[in-house]
């Protein structure tokens, strides 16, 4: 069975810059810098490609198949542990172009956690301010 | 709806108002008393429009407090009752109307994007904490910025020769001290903590002409002690830059990012860093501080900073030498 992940929106936001990727988890207060290899993998997963498909498209680039598989699995596991990506339903039949494998690296920062917005935006209920509407 | 919540339909004095402009956006502030007018116009003195030059405002802000003996507004009482140490901010949205109550400041602020009206309420002016007097209404300006395609970013900003830089970093990184000592040394000053970033024409827009400082940093800038307009019992001191005839600018082209770092070394050094690092630190500290910001802010910041270089600057021990190095860096941008 294919394993498919998608960004944990709206709690997680991301933006590419140069070849890297900035990812912010608004719920945990942690933010991350993904190196170019990790950024490419993120974008492929975000496009709807399954982990298996991403793996198939990787070219060894001097690494062994085992190394590559382990690195990708570790990367995907980390994304889920940090709640940056969550399992998604369907494979969107996305084609993955071949890509040379490189070690994905993620740098994590948690120094903003004390400033975390513990109380996000609430929708107001029919009872008026400041009564919170039930979450749908 | 919001007018009723903030009770501005009752007789409102016409005398107390102030008009200011940020880029081409015209803001009219309405005050309920002369005292509040004095408090809240001071941080914006560099942005005030001379009488007779006003146009139709793009945003109107109603600033109110109660008279002695008057009961606080019902909506404020409700928020205040819900507020706890753990629940520092209460942010509610209803059909484009946003209300924010902050537990520490006791300020209730509202923004209605349909009517382009904003509201700012505190029962008594003497309840205002020092940071609200130095840099008031951040939530309102955050929403105004969003409506214009700008972002209110958590950053200091200085400049030279019509080139502006953002100084970014967490508290204690040397950002504010660097900005203030630069202002004392003839650099152009745009802000010490919050400025507006316009990614459409890549400009930095000043908002507050105030400077906050830790009382112990006055060893570096001795003048600050005498300039503080608040008592030593406050956590930080603050002053207004017009007191020192600083060169406070309304806006400057955005030409670079500087991330200062306390180094403890004899001399100041700087090296270029990837833009992704700058995006990471600026967007994270902005987004986590500003209620209701997220992907739009991240995109705006990203758009603005992709064209400018970013430098990490390890600060030396001597203010004069730091300013010399910064001068060299900015002139070379």
N-to-C CA distance of chain B: 49 Å
Mean pLDDT of chain B, to the nearest integer, reads: 90
Strand content of chain A: 15-25%
In N-to-C order, the SSE pattern of chain B is HEEHEHEEEEHHEEEHEEEEHEEEEHHEH
Structural class of chain B: alpha+beta
Strand order of the largest sheet of chain A: 2-3-4-8
> Percent range for helical residues of chain A?
25-40%
- What are the secondary-structure elements of chain A, in order, as H or E? EEEEHHEHEEEE
Task: Characterise the protein shown here.
- The complex is a heterodimer of chains A (136) and B (333).
- With 136 residues, chain A is α+β, with helices and mostly antiparallel strands.
- Chain A contains three helices and nine strands; from the N terminus they run ββββααβαββββ.
- In chain A, the strands form three sheets. A four-stranded antiparallel beta sheet of chain A has the order 2-3-4-8.
- Chain B is of the alpha+beta class.
- In chain B, 27% of the residues lie in helices and 32% in strands.
- Chain B is built from ten helices and 19 strands.
- Chain B has helices at 2-5, 34-41, 74-82, 130-134, 138-148, 175-184, 223-227, 275-289, 295-305, 319-331, and strands spanning 17-22, 25-31, 59-64, 89-94, 97-102, 108-112, 117-121, 151-154, 156-160, 163-167, 188-191, 194-198, 203-205, 210-214, 236-240, 247-248, 251-265, 269-273, 310-316.
- In chain B, the strands form three sheets. In chain B, strands 8, 9, 10, 11, 12, 13, 16, 17, 18 and 19 form a ten-stranded mixed beta sheet that branches. In chain B, strands 1-2-3-7-6-5-4 form a seven-stranded mixed beta sheet, sandwiched between helices. A two-stranded antiparallel ribbon of chain B has the order 14-15.
- In chain B, helix 2 (34-41) links the parallel strand 2 and strand 3.
- In chain B, helix 8 (275-289) runs antiparallel to helix 9.
- Chain B is globular, with a radius of gyration of 20 Å.
- The model of chain B has no long low-confidence stretch (mean pLDDT 90).
- Strand 9 (121-123) of chain A pairs parallel with strand 4 (89-94) of chain B.
């Amino acid at each position: 069975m294919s394993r498919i992940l998608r960004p944990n929106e709206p709690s997680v936001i991301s933006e590419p810059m140069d070849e890297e990727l900035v990812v912010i988890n608004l719920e945990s207060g942690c933010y991350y810098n993904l190196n170019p290899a990790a950024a490419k993998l993120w974008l492929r997963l975000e496009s709807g490609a399954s982990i298996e498909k991403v793996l198939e498209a990787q070219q060894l680039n001097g690494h062994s198949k085992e190394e590559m598989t382990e690195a990708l699995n570790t990367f995907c596991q980390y994304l889920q542990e940090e709640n940056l990506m969550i399992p998604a339903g369907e494979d969107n039949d996305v084609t993955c172009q071949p890509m040379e494998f490189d070690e994905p690296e993620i740098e994590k920062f948690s120094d903003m956690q004390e400033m975390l917005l513990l109380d996000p935006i609430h929708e107001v209920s029919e009872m008026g301010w400041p009564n919170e509407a039930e979450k749908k | 709806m919001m007018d009723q919540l903030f009770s501005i339909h009752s007789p409102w004095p016409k005398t107390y108002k102030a008009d200011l402009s940020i880029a081409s956006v015209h803001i009219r502030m309405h005050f309920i008393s002369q005292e509040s007018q004095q408090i809240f116009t001071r941080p914006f003195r560099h942005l005030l429009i001379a009488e007779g030059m006003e146009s139709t405002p793009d945003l109107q802000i109603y600033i109110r407090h109660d008279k002695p003996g008057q009961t606080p507004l019902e909506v404020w009482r409700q928020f205040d009752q819900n507020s706890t140490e753990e629940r520092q901010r209460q942010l509610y949205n209803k059909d484009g109307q946003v209300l924010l109550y902050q537990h520490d400041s006791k300020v209730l602020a509202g923004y209605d994007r349909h009517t382009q009206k904003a509201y700012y309420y505190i029962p008594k002016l003497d309840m205002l904490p020092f940071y609200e007097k130095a840099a008031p209404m951040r939530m309102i300006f955050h929403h105004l910025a969003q409506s214009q395609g700008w972002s209110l970013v958590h950053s200091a900003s200085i400049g030279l020769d019509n080139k502006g830089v953002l100084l970014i970093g967490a508290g204690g990184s040397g950002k504010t001290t660097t900005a203030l000592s630069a202002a004392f040394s003839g650099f152009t000053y745009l802000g010490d903590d919050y400025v507006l970033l316009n990614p459409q024409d890549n400009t930095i827009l000043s908002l507050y002409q105030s400077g906050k400082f830790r009382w112990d940093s006055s060893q570096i800038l001795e003048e600050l002690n005498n300039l503080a307009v608040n008592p030593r019992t406050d956590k930080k001191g603050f002053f207004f830059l017009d007191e020192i005839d600083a060169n406070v600018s309304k806006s400057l082209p955005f030409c670079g990012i500087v991330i200062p770092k306390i180094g403890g070394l004899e001399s100041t050094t700087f090296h270029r860093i990837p833009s992704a690092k700058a995006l990471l630190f600026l967007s994270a500290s902005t987004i986590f501080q500003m209620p209701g910001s997220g992907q739009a802010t991240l995109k705006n910041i990203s758009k603005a900073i992709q064209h400018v270089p970013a430098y990490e600057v390890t600060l030396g021990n001597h203010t004069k030498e730091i300013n010399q190095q910064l001068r060299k860096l900015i002139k070379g941008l």
